[in-house]
Amino acid sequence: MTPQDPYPGEQELSSHSFFVPMVDLLAGVVFLLVIMLAASVLVSRPDFGKAQSMQTELRRIAAELETARAAEHLLLDPRRQADRDRRLLLERLAGRLAGRGYQLSVDAERGTVAVEARDAFRDGAIALEPAGQALAAAVGDALAAELPCLAVPATNADGCAGYGDARLETVEVLASPSRMTMPAGGAVSTARALSLQLLSSVAAAHPALVALAGERGVPLMTYGEGASGAAEGPEGLVLRFQMALPPIP
Prior knowledge:
Blueprint: H1 8-44, H2 48-99, E1 104-107, E2 112-116, H3 130-146, E3 168-176, H4 187-205, H5 208-211, E4 221-223, E5 236-243
Parallel strand pairs: 3-4
Antiparallel strand pairs: 1-2, 2-5, 3-5
Helix pairs in contact: 2-3, 3-4
């Protein structure tokens, strides 16, 4: 120890406490400069604007996809459910009527069940033969077992396993005459009158069917002008089912 250097460790301690923070600071500044330089190079590239445009387009496409998914949920899902429920209804009705010995055909796309019953209608008159009365009773039995599941409100919970939340709008009874002599009113008016005869017989066998309503509160059971091309097909009737669907905006 000398008078010129009374504290030999003070200078070393002072150097350490000053230069180390300065080195850290300079390293941080250099790091920031490198980041700024890289950002400047990226922004100045010719394709930077294209990248931004692509990002904007991707966000627009993502928003449209989300809108499409919402539209699918609101519009397509109920239609898919209605189609599944109608197919199940046709299958169950066909099974019940086939079990009664009737020959029938099902068109799932059109939502129809055509039931054959020979000599159902009286030749030259708007009236049902005993075979027609028996057909109406069998159809009424099958409808009474299934339609309450798809009416509003559903009233047959015990027998509705498998159905979803879709509801019927109308059930149309259509006469299918094949070989009768048409009265003066013509084929269309005769088939319509026979359809009404069949509906009346179905309602007489099961009056509760007349009280069933659809989604809009309109009675389910109705009748039409007869099955298309009925004069060429088997005699009997056709049931046509229309499901209630949400409107397309």
